[in-house]
Amino acid sequence: MFLSFGLNVQKALLQSDVQSKTDKTPVTVADYGSQALISFVLQQELRAEFSLVAEEDSKDLRKDGAQEIVERITKLVNYSLTTDGSYNVTLSTEDVLKAIDSGRSEGGSQGQHWVLDPIDGTKGFLRGDQYAIALALLDGGKVVLGVLACPNLPLTSLEDAGQHSPNNEVGCLFFAEVGGGTYMQPLDGSSAVKVQVSAVENPEEASFFESYEAAHSMHDLTSLIAQKLGVKAPPVRIDSQAKYGALSRGDGAIYLRFPHKGYREKIWDHAAGCIVVTEAGGVVTDAAGQPLDFSKGKHLDVDTGIIVTNQKLMPLLLNAVKESLKEKAPSS
């Protein structure tokens, strides 16, 4: 349901379907609609109070002049519910706005919290490239479950297909539970297969992922890290947590993310991807080698950046990161 919603919106996106948030990042009817749908389904299936930490809220949708986009979101949500057929219900605009706002939890170290990025990689979504719908479950501040839906990710390795499959064989669902490994399933419902991160031990044979947008990660720094590590392949730049999914099945061996100064990472940008990679045998840390801490609320307080690779390459990668940061640091 959620996947067909995103794909239908992506194909028929109107200029009026895109807004800008206060931080200048785009948000679409797909972001809002996906969050409303997933929130509604969680409410229906859990049948109890639950905590949801999600990216969007209805603040901008309740402003004057937003009625048209609210009605379009509501229409699309109800179309998805009707088409799916699992729930015999029609939501009002207020129902949809309330469903969006059920994601206002702050999270934390106590109890269970669902963590949602309804459309991760909105700019990729707008370009028709990679994006992900990312849902995770925290229990006591630890990620215990993660699901990554990547509708445009080729079923075969990105190293073979590139971002776009020549046969249009795309659409991957990654899911992982703590202690249970990571699985990938085609979105057509075919059988799931267990996946593992790359076993590459020689950095010269490794390839690395980074953010498509230079505004999201310092490409000059990641280039220096790759150079010091001895990586020869050019970076693979794609949007969203699809990078985590691709890494979990061994498409590449390294993911580097170093946001510009002042940016604070959000838990919904990494929770699902983190467990998908770690359960596939990978390691996810900050630039100092510390594991990501999802127990502090909506934000991740990481040291400088986030690095992801396999266990054999991590010591070498940490050393290259340390040397590169030292070289880039302004001299006193």
TrEMBL record:
Gene3D superfamilies: 3.40.190.80, Fructose-1,6-Bisphosphatase, subunit A, domain 1 (3.30.540.10). Its cofactor is Mg(2+). Mg(2+) binds at E55, D117, I119, D120, D269. Keywords: Hydrolase, Magnesium, Metal-binding, Multifunctional enzyme. It catalyses: 3'-phosphoadenylyl sulfate + H2O = adenosine 5'-phosphosulfate + phosphate; adenosine 2',5'-bisphosphate + H2O = AMP + phosphate; adenosine 3',5'-bisphosphate + H2O = AMP + phosphate; 1D-myo-inositol 1,4-bisphosphate + H2O = 1D-myo-inositol 4-phosphate + phosphate. Pathway: Signal transduction; phosphatidylinositol signaling pathway. Its EC number is 3.1.3.7. It comes from the Eukaryota. GO terms for biological process: inositol phosphate metabolic process; phosphatidylinositol phosphate biosynthetic process; sulfate assimilation. It holds the Pfam family Inositol_P. Belongs to the inositol monophosphatase superfamily. This is 3'(2'),5'-bisphosphate nucleotidase.
